[in-house]
Design brief:
This protein is 20% helix and 31% strand. The protein is α/β, with parallel strands linked by helices and 214 residues long.
Length: 214
Amino acid sequence: MDFRILHDASGRELSYLLADRETAEAVLIDPRSRDLPVITALLREKRLRLRWVLRTHQHDHLQPMEFARLRQLGAPVVQGEARDGARTAPNGEYLDIGREQIQVWATPGHTAHCLSFAWRDRVFCGGLLALDACPLQPYPADAAALWDSVTLRLFTMPGETLLFAGHEVPLQAVSTVWAQRRAHPWFAQMDRDAFITHWIGSDRATCPQTALQG
């Protein structure tokens, strides 16, 4: 399998391309429509057929043309939020890509319908750990659900599991479950009640930097 990180420096956002070399099938995770010229050129250069477009989360109410533009890639758009033209995937479903499979996890909290995607030893978790990093929504939509998604799903994975974010921090696009369990400024240093109380309060503007904004 080929694995490539696509970095949008202007928005400090990260997308990911996985491709099976033998079948020439590919999947994009969290592509941005403004990157379509680069993405289509890359797929053409590598002679790849796009199998899936996977979205960990979306803010289409703030970007009304984003979904329609991503559909121009010609592959099913998989996301947690149901809408015309989207493919919703139940928790635990496996999506085939060549000889490989990617598992869909329901991980709500950053938005109500967030997904994460698990492949081999890594999880693409979008905005799951980036409580204040997403410029379109710098706070959890559901603090209780987010706490449970992180602590009961993500943090139960082996410590060496790699976590790939949707938003960068300087010199860091990837972390591990072990590092985040020990050092995340929210989930490693607060309990559930304190976390929920903070995020339903009025002091969202005074939040600490997240260790891995993803």
